[in-house]
Amino acid sequence: MKPAWTWLREDGALAIIGAAFVASGTWLVWTGVSNLRLGHQSLSWPIVVGTITSSGKGEDGTYIAYEYDVGGRRYTNDQVDFGLLGRGDRLEHYRVGRVVAVHYRPSNSQEAVLEPGCYGPGVHMLMAFGTVMGIIGAFTFIQTLRGRLSKRIPPEPGVPGPPGA
Predict the structure, then answer these.
(1) Which class for 104: exposed (0-12), middle (13-18), buried (19 or more C-beta within 10 A)?
(2) Which residues is 104 bridged to in the sheet?
(3) Helix or strand or coil: residue 127?
(4) 33 Cβ contact list (under 8 Å, min separation 6)
(5) Spatial separation of the C-alpha atoms in residues 94 and 136, rounded to whole Å
(6) What are the CA-CA distances from residue 104 to residues 20, 39, 80, 83, 113 (Å)?
(7) What does the buried/exposed string (b/e) look like for 50-63 if buried means 16 or more CB atoms within 10 Å of the residue's CB?
(8) Per-residue pLDDT tens for 55-106?
(9) Domain ranges of the chain
(10) How far apart are CA 124 and CA 121, in angstroms?
(11) For labeling, which of 26, 89, 128, 150 is most exposed (least CB within 10 Å)?
């Protein structure tokens, strides 16, 4: 008889991979929904004047930073939009020193964005990919557990087992 923990080597890796896919897919969908929600809310946020302090391409990709004042307090931010796609095509638009409209969250002035709303396919692609990952993960996890349970539960006396058993 095999020790109880051997199932981890046999089926457990698939169950762990399935659970990881479910967790990752859930996180991706949650991130997408959060960005959609913030994008929608940002359409009604108050607007102040800000200035682009830096923009360019670095090791981590394109960056655009700006500063703005709310209630006599200075803030800096780098959130351009909630769309999750690259900013490379916007560098010319957001040159250093340019005066911009900054939309800030009334309940937290540190949270701001230059382009309110949530446009482009980035967030929707993220949520679709997360959903597919979650479905694949759930299917893998459930099938692994079903297969494991069918190996462990002996048929009741007088009840025929599965075909081929």
Answers:
(1) buried
(2) 112
(3) helix
(4) 127
(5) 41
(6) 36, 12, 12, 17, 6
(7) bebeebeeeeeebe
(8) 888 777 788 899 999 999 999 999 888 876 655 567 778 899 999 999 999 9
(9) 9-43+118-151, 44-116
(10) 5
(11) 89
Nearest to 22 by CA among 111, 155, 142, 137: 137
CA neighbor of 116 nearest in space, from 16, 43, 20, 24: 43
Q: Tell me how long the chain is.
A: 165
| pTM, full prediction | 0.67
Tell me the residue type at 139. F
Count of CA atoms in the C-beta half-sphere (13 A) of 77: 24
Q: What are the tokens at 112?
A: 């701001």
Per-residue confidence band for 134, with pLDDT thresholds at 50, 70 and 90 = very high
Q: Domain 44-116's class?
A: mainly beta
Largest CA distance in the chain: 84
Which residue is associated with the tokens 């679709």? 128
Q: Is 159 helix (H, G, I), strand (E, B) or coil?
A: coil
Residue indicated by tokens 């391409």: 57
